[in-house]
């Protein structure tokens, strides 16, 4: 393999300490955290106004973020990294982990995205969850999530980042399983939990390796000395971080939990599983640019994972009839684009973040739109029972269309600018991944058009007692705001603003000429997307849509419906062997130990004198195991030393 | 023959002597005081003895003088049999603090309606008329307090011993009262007595190995003193097999006490069968004392032969963590789950034992494995005492209800108690912002620095598997609909509730600002060699 990028100058994180308005940055996290604490500990006392408080803390946090952002705009480029030390968390000898915050151009954008979209979704949830008796608790969890996510992007070291990382995982688990009376929701929560643990192992190991290699876990410390570490160490670090990113961002091979996570309430899907949390992996890689720039093998691996995922997700999106799962497949695929850009190094980091922001807007918009449709269709998610919703829900339709045009990359809309840039950079750096990205854009055009047609156009296939109606304005206003952002977010690229803005964090790339003129590439992308859209029009729009999924379909469709056998692969490789191991150990434990004891007092009384005889045997078997242990210890000592 | 009067360093040894003195006094009280006045007297005697010893420990600790040019402070006393150095004093403090918690739990009488959790008349056969009479008269075994004090004395002696024989004597002094205490439960007496018998038989079995190992090491080194054994290990290359076999057998005795795999088989049965107050005391204090002794033996006596015993410890640590985590997943009883969880924690501490040792071998400012292990023991002790204290509160008509289904929905009926339990579990799971996280972080980093990354890898995998069963229990308490009979939280006297409160507070504070305690452990310095 050849290196995908030449190493350019890698910026060092070197923040100045916080003063003036910046000394308020802790408030951004503290507000939602206080909200969560009040709502979750306050109990029923807070039932009546809990949702308002939750929304207010999130909005307050947004206001502070805005203030900080404008302050930062006013600063010199070289002076845009500010840190605030709250207190020393762990300090002993070398090990010095501070509760330190870092505010720089990268975290500034994240703060706006998280608190801004977060607040809109809080507002929307007031309407969406109005009939739920546990609404207060829901808002408490949402606040908790926002606080943890802010911690993740504001921490100045990997330990603090890990704290946020675990926090969003916990909030996500609680929210996916929020409707715990549904067994599917409980199972989905568990699955997300387990798969994320695998990713977290990678994160934890990476942090230890950071500490062992560099003696610190802070970004500033590591970025300063990263170039001094060996190639193998850096590659290992990169791969471990990638494993963490794969778990949180649902990248192959840890992708299977995201589709199931759609069991959670729709605002949750919009906030956590589309706009913010699942993009944490991208943040991690961009933030760790000082590692990845020096670890070409890990970077290559990021690109491979991303390319596979962007196609994998797109294929899933084509086959799903559940509107939320189709959108989830698309999320997976779009995060693949971001990871791809991040894996391309300095040339791509800024575009990864750019696509992350635009995607945050249009995907949140579409998820909330889907929620609005479901709200009108008695919570049915099957697109085969939708059709012609357009007239019943004009506002939802309009806002959803904006999101649709943005995601397929219709010229002028935000997604057009961000995706086009990624494809261009990919083609420049490596034409194979470039083609994969191009193909992905075509498939995106197909599945999104299919979703649009099946939902809003074609004939009515509603169930009998369904009477779709427009949602209340508390739900449509956030939709309108997000729709406007989906259209307009492209302005961030005006004059390469976002590239320059992020340059203090990720560095300036040397300009490489793309293989074709940029305009030609854009033309090709638009053409490929148009082909996808047209294909959907002829294959879905012009045909009768069956009420139940047809069974006489090709192998490819069947594979896509089965999530490309992602679960089967997990089952075969991990779950089944694991289960056999546990049951084997269990049998061993039972025969050796457990048996009668677990029965407790009643069993003891009933079996009475019998038990004592049996019990003697047990001690003997224990003693035998001790003896075996003695042999093990002694033999291990002798073999290691004398052999 | 001239008789030389032995010199005893009373100024440094008096905390131990106070504990043993209070224990002996307790026996006298038992013999001469009328029954109705014994309980209060014994509790006061034990409590005062422990507090006095704790104060003494602090005084001794601040007064230790630096020895030579190393990082070690303190002295070798008792005619060369005992070492009072920084780690000793720190471990004494830990044992005493947890023992005070133990006394508070022992003295709790409100939960059983006016009597303690200990059998009214241990000699009466279960299910007989004698037993019924004893319980009708409201009898109480107040001998438990002197027994506890003797055990505490042994636990203080154990990590302070400077030769193999003292270590063996200390091991027996701490073990014998524990065997008895395990058999004294008021409820489920058969279970309790069997636990005691098992613990005794297996303990005696492992002690025999320990003693045999002592003999072999003496044969190799020609001395019982740790410093001289170290000298022999350093110089002598003959008879290495004898040393290795001896070392292995001594290790077995210690590994048995801390409940490391494959010597863990007694743990679940004994933890479950013993009265819960005893379990709490034993789980925290025995582990502290035995790890202290293990550290001293392996760092001081066998320290220069590190490369020969470390691979064996690697295997044991890995095995312990995996066995503990995997078997905890399949448990359906709270006490057994906590027992297996304690097995896996033993594995984590062993991971720390594998780290780089003396601060003289480290770069300036790096953490030594001694500090990491001491800190881990501190965090774990508070969580485990607190967790078992909560277990004593959750009861139904038949006493403590430890089966999982009984705990379903507890969080809705008693959010405060269930919340405290959940907090202890989160700490044991090592979730950030609890003490367990900092502890795990410390032991993992020292092991990583020493190059034991395969062990750290397994440790992370095991702790992640462990998160599963801890969270599952939290979900059971807060999110599961109760079915059938459920347990309720019984109102306790301040003794138990204050203990739980202190443990919650310690777990919380050590997670948020662990600095002062880490500094304390760092200041404890090195072992005297």
From TrEMBL, chain A:
Has UniProt tagged this entry with the keyword Repeat? no
Which interval of the chain is the signal sequence? none
- Membrane topology per the record? Multi-pass membrane protein
**Span of domain NADH:quinone oxidoreductase/Mrp antiporter transmembrane:** 155-444
Q: Any one Gene Ontology biological process term?
A: ATP synthesis coupled electron transport
Q: Where in the cell is it found?
A: Endomembrane system; Membrane
Alphabetic keyword roster: Membrane, Transmembrane, Transmembrane helix
InterPro entries registered for this protein in UniProt = NADHpl_OxRdtase_5_subgr (IPR018393), ND/Mrp_TM (IPR001750), NU5C-like (IPR003945), Proton_antipo_N (IPR001516)
Give a GO cellular-component term.
membrane
MF terms in GO? NADH dehydrogenase (ubiquinone) activity; NADH dehydrogenase activity
Instruction: Mark the transmembrane ranges.
Output: 20-41, 53-73, 106-126, 138-155, 161-180, 201-222, 266-286, 298-319, 335-354, 389-411, 431-453, 474-498, 518-540, 622-642
Q: Per its UniProt entry, which superkingdom is the organism in?
A: Bacteria
Is Protease included in the keywords of this UniProt record? Answer: no
Q: Which residues form the NADH-Ubiquinone oxidoreductase (complex I) chain 5 N-terminal domain?
A: 89-139
Question: What PANTHER family does this protein's entry cite?
Answer: NADH-UBIQUINONE OXIDOREDUCTASE CHAIN 5
Q: What's this protein's name?
A: NADH dehydrogenase subunit L
Its lineage reads:
Bacteria, Bacillati, Actinomycetota, Actinomycetes, Propionibacteriales
Automatic annotation (TrEMBL), chain B:
Question: What molecular function terms (GO) are annotated for this protein?
Answer: NADH dehydrogenase (quinone) (non-electrogenic) activity; NADH dehydrogenase (ubiquinone) activity; quinone binding
Q: Does the record bear Transmembrane in its keywords?
A: yes
BP-aspect Gene Ontology terms: ATP synthesis coupled electron transport
Task: Name the PANTHER family for this protein.
Answer: NADH DEHYDROGENASE
**What EC class does the entry list?**
translocase
The subunit field of the Swiss-Prot or TrEMBL record says: NDH-1 is composed of 14 different subunits. Subunits NuoA, H, J, K, L, M, N constitute the membrane sector of the complex.
List, alphabetically, the PROSITE patterns matched. Answer: PROKAR_LIPOPROTEIN
Q: Where in the cell is it found?
A: Cell membrane; Endomembrane system; Membrane
Q: Which residues cross the membrane?
A: 13-33, 45-68, 88-107, 144-161, 167-185, 197-221, 241-263, 275-299, 311-330, 337-358, 370-394, 415-438, 450-471, 492-513
Pfam families, alphabetically? Proton_antipo_M
| Record-listed E.C. numbers | 7.1.1.-
- Give the range the annotation lists for the signal sequence: none
Q: Which family does it belong to?
A: Belongs to the complex I subunit 2 family.
List the keywords (alphabetical): Cell membrane, Membrane, NAD, Quinone, Translocase, Transmembrane, Transmembrane helix, Transport
- Catalytic function, reaction form: a quinone + NADH + 5 H(+)(in) = a quinol + NAD(+) + 4 H(+)(out)
The name this protein carries in UniProt is NADH-quinone oxidoreductase subunit N
Topology within the bilayer: Multi-pass membrane protein
**One Gene Ontology cellular component:** endomembrane system
């Amino acid at each position: 393999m050849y290196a995908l990028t030449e190493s350019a100058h890698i910026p060092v994180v070197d923040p100045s300490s916080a003063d003036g308005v910046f000394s308020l940055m802790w408030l951004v996290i503290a507000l939602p955290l206080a909200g969560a604490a009040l709502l979750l500990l306050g109990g029923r006392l807070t039932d009546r106004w809990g949702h308002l408080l939750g929304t207010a803390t999130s909005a307050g946090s947004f206001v502070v973020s805005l203030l900080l952002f404008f302050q930062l705009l006013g600063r010199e480029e070289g002076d845009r990294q500010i840190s605030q030390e709250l207190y020393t968390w762990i300090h002993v000898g070398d090990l010095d982990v501070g509760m330190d915050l870092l505010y720089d151009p990268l975290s500034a954008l994240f703060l706006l995205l998280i608190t801004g979209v977060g607040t809109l979704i809080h507002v929307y949830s007031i309407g969406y969850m109005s009939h739920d008796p546990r609404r207060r608790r829901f808002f408490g969890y949402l606040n908790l999530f926002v606080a943890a996510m802010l911690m993740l992007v504001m921490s100045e070291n990997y330990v603090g980042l890990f704290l946020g990382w675990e926090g969003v995982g916990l909030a996500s688990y609680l929210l996916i399983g929020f409707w715990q009376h549904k067994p599917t929701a409980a199972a989905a929560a568990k699955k997300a939990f387990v798969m994320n643990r695998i990713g977290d192992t990678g994160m934890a190991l990476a942090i230890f390796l950071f500490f062992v290699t560099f003696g610190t876990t802070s970004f500033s410390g590591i970025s300063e000395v990263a170039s001094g570490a060996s190639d193998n160490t850096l590659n290992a670090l990169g791969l471990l971080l990638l494993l963490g990113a794969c778990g949180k961002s649902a990248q192959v091979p840890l992708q299977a939990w995201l589709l199931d996570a759609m069991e959670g309430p729709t605002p949750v899907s919009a906030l956590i599983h589309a706009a913010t949390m699942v993009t944490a992996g991208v943040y991690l890689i961009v933030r760790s640019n000082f590692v990845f720039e020096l670890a070409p093998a890990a970077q290559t691996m990021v690109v491979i994972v991303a390319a596979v995922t962007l196609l994998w997700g797109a294929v899933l999106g084509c086959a799903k009839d559940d509107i939320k799962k189709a959108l989830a497949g698309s999320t997976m695929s779009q995060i693949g684009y971001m990871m791809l850009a991040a894996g391309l190094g300095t040339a791509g980091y800024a575009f990864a973040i750019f696509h992350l922001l635009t995607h945050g807007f249009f995907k949140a918009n579409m998820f909330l739109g889907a929620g609005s449709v479901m709200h009108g269709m008695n919570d049915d998610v099957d697109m085969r029972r939708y059709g012609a919703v357009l007239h019943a829900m004009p506002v939802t339709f309009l806002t959803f269309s904006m999101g649709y045009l943005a995601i397929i990359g219709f010229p002028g809309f935000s997604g057009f600018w961000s995706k086009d840039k990624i494809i261009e950079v990919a083609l420049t750096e490596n034409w194979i991944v470039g083609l994969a990205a191009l193909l992905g854009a075509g498939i995106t055009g197909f599945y999104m058009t299919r979703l649009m047609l099946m939902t809003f156009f074609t004939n009515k296939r509603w169930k009998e007692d369904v009477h779709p109606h427009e949602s209340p304005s508390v739900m449509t206003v956030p939709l309108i705001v997000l729709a406007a952002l989906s259209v307009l977010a492209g302005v961030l690229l005006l004059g390469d603003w976002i590239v320059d803005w992020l340059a203090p964090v990720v560095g300036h790339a040397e300009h490489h000429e793309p293989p074709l003129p940029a305009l030609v590439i854009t033309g090709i992308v638009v053409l490929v997307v148009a082909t996808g859209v047209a294909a959907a029009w002829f294959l879905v729009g012009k045909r009768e849509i069956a009420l139940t999924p047809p069974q006489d379909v090709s192998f490819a469709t069947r594979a896509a419906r089965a999530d490309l056998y992602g679960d089967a692969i997990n089952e075969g490789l991990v779950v089944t062997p694991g289960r056999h191991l546990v049951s084997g150990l269990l049998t061993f434990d039972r025969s050796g130990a457990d048996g009668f004891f677990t029965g407790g007092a009643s069993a003891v009384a009933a079996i009475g004198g019998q038990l004592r005889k049996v019990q003697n045997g047990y001690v003997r078997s224990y003693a035998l195991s001790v003896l075996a242990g003695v042999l093990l210890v002694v033999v291990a000592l002798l073999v290691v030393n004398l052999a | 023959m001239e008789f030389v009067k032995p010199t005893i360093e009373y100024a440094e040894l008096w905390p131990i002597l106070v504990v043993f003195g209070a224990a002996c006094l307790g026996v006298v009280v038992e013999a001469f005081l009328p029954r109705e006045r014994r309980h209060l007297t014994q509790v006061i005697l034990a409590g005062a003895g422990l507090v006095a010893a704790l104060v003494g420990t602090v005084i001794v600790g601040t007064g230790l003088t630096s020895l030579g040019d190393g990082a070690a402070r303190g002295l070798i006393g008792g005619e060369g049999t005992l070492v009072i150095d920084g780690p000793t004093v720190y471990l004494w403090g830990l044992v005493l603090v947890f023992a005070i918690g133990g006394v508070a739990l022992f003295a709790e009488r409100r939960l059983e309606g006016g009597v303690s959790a200990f059998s009214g008349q241990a000699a009466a056969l279960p299910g007989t008329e004698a037993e019924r009479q004893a319980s009708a008269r409201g009898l109480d075994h107040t001998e438990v307090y002197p027994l506890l004090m003797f055990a505490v004395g042994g636990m203080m002696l154990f990590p302070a011993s400077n030769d193999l024989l003292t270590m063996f004597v200390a091991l027996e002094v701490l073990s014998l009262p524990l065997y008895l205490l395990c058999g004294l439960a008021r409820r489920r007496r058969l279970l309790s007595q069997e636990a005691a018998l098992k613990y005794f038989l297996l303990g005696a079995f492992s002690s025999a190995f320990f003693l045999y190992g002592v003999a072999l090491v003496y044969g190799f080194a020609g001395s019982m003193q740790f410093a001289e054994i170290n000298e022999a290990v350093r110089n002598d290359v003959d008879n290495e097999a004898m040393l290795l076999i001896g070392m292995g057998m001594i290790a077995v005795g210690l590994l048995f006490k801390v409940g490391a795999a494959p010597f863990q088989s007694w743990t679940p049965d004994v933890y479950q069968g013993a009265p819960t107050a005893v379990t709490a005391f034993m789980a925290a204090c025995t582990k502290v004392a035995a790890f202290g002794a293990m550290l001293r033996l392996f760092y001081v006596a066998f320290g220069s032969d590190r490369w020969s015993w470390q691979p064996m410890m690697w295997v044991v640590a890995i095995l312990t963590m995996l066995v503990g985590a995997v078997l905890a997943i399949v448990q359906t009883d709270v006490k057994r789950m906590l027992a297996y969880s304690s097995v896996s924690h033993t594995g984590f501490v062993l991971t720390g034992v594998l780290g780089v040792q003396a601060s003289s071998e480290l770069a300036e400012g790096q953490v030594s494995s001694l500090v990491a292990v001491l800190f881990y023991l501190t965090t774990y002790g508070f969580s485990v005492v607190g967790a078992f204290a909560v277990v004593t509160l959750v009861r139904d008509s038949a006493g403590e209800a430890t089966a999982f289904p009984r705990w379903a929905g507890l969080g809705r009926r008693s959010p405060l108690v269930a919340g405290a339990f959940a907090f202890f579990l989160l700490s044991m799971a090592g979730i950030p912002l609890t003490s367990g996280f900092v502890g795990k972080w410390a032991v993992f980093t020292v092991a990583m620095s020493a190059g034991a990354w395969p062990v750290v890898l397994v440790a992370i995998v095991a702790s992640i598997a462990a998160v599963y069963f801890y969270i599952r229990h939290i979900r059971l308490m807060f999110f599961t609909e109760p079915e059938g009979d459920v347990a309720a939280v019984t109102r306790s006297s301040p003794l138990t509730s204050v203990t739980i409160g202190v443990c919650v507070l310690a777990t919380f504070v050590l997670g948020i600002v662990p600095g002062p305690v880490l500094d304390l452990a760092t200041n404890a310095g090195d072992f005297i060699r």
